[in-house]
């Protein structure tokens, strides 16, 4: 089945530790995105990548880092510099055609900092 | 500065009636709009989209209307079903085409 997988579903981290969230897609999409959702809020863009070996900061990139070494994979590292990392993290890939433009989301990772 | 606004955080509708979710945007250069539906602890799923060259797009029970002069779009769900209870996000394609800007969402509750 084609789709986007994120792992793990739930993640607990001690304060001061870095943690990496996995995102894999087999949809052959060039573009991938990381969003953060906080309770009662919308989706805020952390980082995005239009192509392998290239990525750009989104609206709230501070305290996060990414890599895009393969088309299928776009891992997100939440560093100890992120002041409020507890949130629901969503990865997406995107396809654009002449008359379409759609993002497909993974199931999300709930990160809790203890 | 919010470029995509959904001013109603929540909405309750009786089963079988029409649900109307509203969205306003500030940038007249946006040319493509999408609606996503999200259940708790899951990723959003694409629902319906509309290009700025159209004013209406329909897919089954879901219809999106676009009023470019008012910079306003709406999602109509008819008839509403309990399974439609979810958070609905309005989104617009950014002018540089490299990202999509999401609104804060509206939580819809369909009451049986």
What layout of secondary structure does this protein have?
The complex is a heterodimer of chains A (114) and B (112).
Chain A: E1 4-7, E2 10-13, E3 19-25, E4 31-37, E5 43-51, E6 54-57, E7 64-66, E8 76-78, E9 87-96, E10 101-105, E11 109-113
Parallel strand pairs in A: 2-11
Antiparallel strand pairs in A: 1-3, 3-8, 4-5, 4-9, 5-6, 7-8, 9-10, 9-11
Chain B: E1 4-5, E2 10-14, E3 19-25, E4 32-38, E5 45-51, E6 56-59, E7 62-67, E8 72-77, E9 86-93, E10 100-102, E11 106-111
Parallel strand pairs in B: 2-11
Antiparallel strand pairs in B: 1-3, 3-8, 4-5, 4-9, 6-7, 7-8, 9-10, 9-11
Question: Your description of this structure?
Answer:
The complex is a heterodimer of chains A (114) and B (112). Chain A is mainly β and 114 residues long. Chain A is built from no helices and 11 strands. Chain A has strands at 4-7, 10-13, 19-25, 31-37, 43-51, 54-57, 64-66, 76-78, 87-96, 101-105, 109-113. In chain A, the strands form 2 sheets. In chain A, strands 2, 4, 5, 6, 9, 10 and 11 form a 7-stranded mixed β-sheet that branches. Chain A has a 4-stranded antiparallel β-sheet with strand order 1-3-8-7, with no helix packed on it. The termini of chain A are far apart. The model of chain A has no long low-confidence stretch (mean pLDDT 92). By secondary structure, chain B is mainly β. In chain B, 0% of the residues lie in helices and 54% in strands. Chain B is built from no helices and 11 strands. In chain B, strands 2, 4, 5, 9, 10 and 11 form a 6-stranded mixed β-sheet that branches. Chain B starts with a strand and ends with a strand. The model of chain B has no long low-confidence stretch (mean pLDDT 94). Classes of the chains: A mainly beta (114), B mainly beta (112). Chain A binds chain B through residues 4, 6, 31, 33, 35, 40-43, 45, 48, 50, 56, 58, 88, 90, 92, 94, 96, 99-108, 110, and chain B through 9, 32, 34, 36, 41-46, 49, 51, 89, 93, 97-100, 102-105.
């Amino acid at each position: 089945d084609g789709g986007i997988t994120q792992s793990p579903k739930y993640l607990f981290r001690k304060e001061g530790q870095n943690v990496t969230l996995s995102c894999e897609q087999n949809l052959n999409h060039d573009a991938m995105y990381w969003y953060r959702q906080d309770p009662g809020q919308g989706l805020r863009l952390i980082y995005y990548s239009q192509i392998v070996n290239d990525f750009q900061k989104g609206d709230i990139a501070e305290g996060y880092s990414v890599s895009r070494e393969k088309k299928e994979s776009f891992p997100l590292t939440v560093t100890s510099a992120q002041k409020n990392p507890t949130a629901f993290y969503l990865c997406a890939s995107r396809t654009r055609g002449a008359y379409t433009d759609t993002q497909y989301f993974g199931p999300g990772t709930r990160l809790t900092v203890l | 500065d919010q470029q995509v606004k959904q001013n109603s955080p929540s909405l309750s509708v009786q089963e079988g009636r029409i649900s109307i979710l509203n969205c306003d945007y500030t940038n007249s250069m946006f040319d493509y709009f999408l609606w996503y539906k999200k259940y708790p602890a899951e990723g959003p799923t694409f629902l319906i989209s509309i290009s700025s060259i159209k004013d209406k797009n329909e897919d089954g029970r879901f219809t999106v209307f676009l009023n470019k002069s008012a910079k306003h779009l709406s999602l109509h769900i008819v008839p509403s079903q309990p399974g439609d209870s979810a958070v609905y996000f309005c989104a617009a394609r950014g002018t540089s085409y490299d990202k999509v800007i999401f609104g804060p969402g509206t939580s819809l509750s369909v009451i049986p």
